[in-house]
Structures are given as structure tokens and as C-alpha cells.
Amino acid sequence: MDGELRRSMRAPRIVSVNTSLFELFKIGIGPSSSHTVGPMRAALRFVQSLDTQGRLADAARVRVDLYGSLALTGHGHGTDRAILLGLMGEAPDTVNPAVIEAELAAVRNTGTLYLLDREAIPFNEAEHLLFHRNQMYPDAAIPTHPNGMRFSAFDATGGLIAQETFYSVGGGFILSASEFEAQRDSSAPSTRTVPYPFHDAAELLSTASAHGLTIAQLLLANEVALLSELSITRPAPLDEAASSPEERVKNSIFAIWRTMQQCTERGLATEGILPGGLNVRRRAPRLARRLETEGSRDPLAPMDWVTVYAMAVNEENAAGGRVVTAPTNGAAGVIPAIAHYYMRFIDGADEAGIVRYFLTAAAIGILYKENASISGAEVGCQGEVGVACSMAAGGLVAALNGTNDQVEHAAEIAMEHNLGMTCDPIGGLVQIPCIERNGMGAVKAINAARMAMHETLGHKLSLDQVIATMYQTGLDMQSRYKETSLAGLALNIIEC
Ligand code: SF4
Q1: What lines the ligand 1 site, CB under 6 Å?
Q2: 331-362 pLDDT tens trace
């Protein structure tokens, strides 16, 4: 393999513009946004397309081919389960985690899968769901993205009736092959219109300054403009009919925050061993109990709570529970941990601060999404926990009513000290190092925010420079350190 897998990736950058907050913060299920949420959405989109074309009933057999990182760590990341569920018509934001096991058992025990819960086909994973562990890209000769998958449908005579290639490009985002090609063209115009477009941090700051806006106010105006964009799924606001467009956006942000809180609560309450065979015990409930009884006398107890909140979310994620991408599943604990920190430990914290936090964190996440990558398979963990840390640091400054310049500085500091962080999950599971790493990322975000807010002079490095550095570092990183479980901790730790 290994020549191909070790080769440094040099695929051109994917460019998209005017990404929404609600595309970065999406309700889904664990354990992975790129390996679970993305493939489920791709499978669902493939069968829905067949249905739209009137070909669903013609499909007598479906084959799914997985490549690159999806093939190498797909079993540990639940890609096989996600593909089956998507073919059956389930979506990440609506599937009931409590019924997943029964649905999968029905397919595996009977050898029959119902496409869109209607059309029965024989489905045997060994024959119809193929993990190409020796091939990085769907077309071996053309470097594209390391999370490629191809869906093929055949009629009763064995004739091919439909075929589509998708890429799961991080954070649950998927692109068809044609969309992927179109978005590699950085000159392609955006089809979305917002009042304050920005392409990098410098433009974000200058536009905000020119209009006398905070970054949060700027992004709120953009999100209001995107309310009419039907391709963006938002959690239903509490009072859609009565509220203004601004209130609808804010209410959807609160729905995201509420889902994060529920995830944290489940993580703090659920004991046991995480699935996957690594025998990792959930630690958040025990750590929280200890902090409740002993920790209050410790001046660093707030930092311990931040770690526990992050771990609670990521233990839920590892268990396949309901989580919010932030910006990915593997990094889903950092953003809620800092929101909890703000609400619990900052005097005067309120809902307006939570809104500033999420809007500002999203603006920073958009910079990474559109100028670099949020895919561990593409740039390592610096693009997941590193980006979440940067988003949370900037968001916390905004929640604390810091300036736009301090937001930019905090986000820069946070990423600067995550540069080079690899992705080497043991056993292909989103558990070690991922769960603790979210705690570390959250604590680092607070430190970065405090450093930026204490600073009165300018700083040498810009956020744009550090984003570019992160991306270049990710491209230079050998592929075996990018969500393949072929090196690092995954290689040196014996699974038991
Ligand atoms: S090491 Fe980081 S990027 Fe890799 S799976 Fe874990 S959280 Fe995601």
C-alpha cells in the first residue's frame, strides 16, 4: 500500500463560500461526522435520487465501495452501519439512536435490506459493502479526497442502472463527484448571497470595522439572509411564526445549544464500557461525581469541569449517541464545554453571550472550512480538535465582550499551538486519543482567550497566516497520520 498511502496528499483545495453556522453545527449521531454522518447522508441521497428517477423498484442489488480513510477506519467509525441506515432511508438528524441496533440486526439476520424502507433487496455486507483498504481514491490514478465512496445499483439482469461517487469532506459535508470538481475551482461564484461576504479573517475584520459591527452581528446578518436557502437544515425555532428573522436564527442557535446540553447530560449520567472492543470505560460520570463532592475547594475546579464536559460529550459520541458536529463529531466536545464554562463560571453570563459565542465561533469555523479543511483524513487532528479549539477561543472572547481584534488573536493563538497534531485513533475508534483530546482542546481555548484579552499590543502572526500554515502542514503530513490508524498511537498501542 503503502506507497500510495504514504504519499503526501496534494489534492487541490475545496472551495465553498458563504457556509452557514447551521452547516457547521449540525445535529447528527456519533461517532464520526466524516465517517458516519457523511456516508449516511450519501447513501440516503443515492437512494432518494433513484426514487426521484423512478428507478428504485428496478434496483435488484446495490454495491457500495469505500476507499482511503473510509476503508481503513470505517469499521471503527461506524461507516458500515451508517451506509446501511442511509440506504434504508434514515437521516443523521432524525434517526432514533435507540432503534439503530434493531434495524441493523434485522438486515444482518435476514440478509434483506429495504431501500428507503420500501424495496427489498438481498444485502450481504461481505459481498455488497466493500472496503478497499489498498486504494486511496475511487479512481486510483486521480487524487481527490481520502474519504471517497461509490454507490452502484444493478437491475435483475445485472445491468448497471445508476452509479454515483461521493466524498465526505469533513464535518458531515458531502459532495458528489461533479460538486467536488466544481468546488475545486476557486473562481466559481457562490450561489448564495449574504450582506457581508468574507473570504478570510482580514476581510472579516475590515468589513466588520467598516460597518461598525461585531463579528457576531455580522454573521447574524448573514444568517438572516441565508434563511431562504433551502439546502440548509436548521433545528426548528421555538416560535417560527411570531418571531423576527433575527429571533428565528437565535432560536435555532438555542436549539443547537439545547441539543449539546442534552448530550452533555447523558454523558455525565451514563456509565459503562464504550463499544468497539477497546474496552474503554466511560469516565465523565465518575469524574463529575468526584468534582461535586471534593472539587469545589480546588481553585482549578472550573478547568476540571471543562475537561469533564468535553469528555462527557465525546463519550456519548463514541457510543453512537445524538451529538452536534462542532465542527466535526470527533471534536464535538470542545464547543459545548466552553459554553458550559461560560454559563457556569462567568459572572453575568447570559443567553445573549451564548448567541455571541456561537455566532463568533461559527465565523471562525467558516474561515477554516473555506480556506483550509476540517477533515482529519485530509489535514490530521489539527483540522478537527485544533479548529474546534480555535473556534471556541474566539467565541469565548466574544461572549466576554472582547473586541473583534481580540477574537482574531485568540483564534490565532489557539490554532498556533495545535499545529501538526496528527490523527491516529487506536483501533479506528473515536476514543483514544479523541476523548481526552477534546478536554485538552477546551482548556487550551480558555488559555488562548485569556492571553488575547490580556494583550494590549498587536501580535505578529495573523489568523489567516496560521490557517494557511495549518493547511500546508496537513498536506505535508504523511497520509498514515491522517485518520488511517496506520501510525502513531494506533500502531504502538496494543489493542486489548
Ligand atoms: S484523533 Fe482527532 S481527528 Fe482523529 S478521529 Fe480522533 S478527534 Fe478525530
Answers
A1: 330-331, 376, 381, 384-385, 423, 425, 430, 433-434, 437, 483
A2: 999 999 999 999 999 999 999 999 999 999 99
Contact indicator for 315, 288 with CB cutoff of 8 Å: no
Residue type present at position 90: E
pLDDT 10s digits, 364-376? 999 999 999 999 9
Query: Which helix (H) or strand (E) is 310 found in, with range?
Result: helix 301-318
Cα-to-centroid distance, 423 and ligand 1 (Å): 5
Q: Choose which residue among 274, 387, 423 to substitute to test ligand 1 binding: the one with the highest number of ligand atoms within 8 A of its C-beta.
A: 423
Q: Whole-model pTM above 0.85?
A: yes
| Cell 484579552 sits on residue | 453
Provide the sign of the torsion angle of the four alpha carbons 95, 99, 103, 108, taken in this order.
positive
Q: What is the CA radius of gyration of the chain?
A: 22
- One-character DSSP codes across 169-221: EETTEEEEHHHHHHHH-TTSPPS---SS--SSHHHHHHHHHHHT--HHHHHHH
Distances (CA, A) of 259 to 44, 164, 325, 347, 397: 23, 33, 11, 24, 23
From the CA of 384, give the closest atom in ligand 1.
3
424 CA closest ligand 1 atom index: 1
Distance 7 CA to ligand 1 centre (A): 20
Dist CA 391 CA 77 (whole Å): 24
- The preferred substitution site among 434, 435, 477, 481 for testing ligand 1, maximizing ligand atoms within 8 Å of CB, is 434
Domains of the chain plus CATH, in order, are 33-184 (3.30.1330.90), 201-228+234-492 (no CATH)
Per DSSP bridges, beta strands 129-132 and 61-67 are parallel
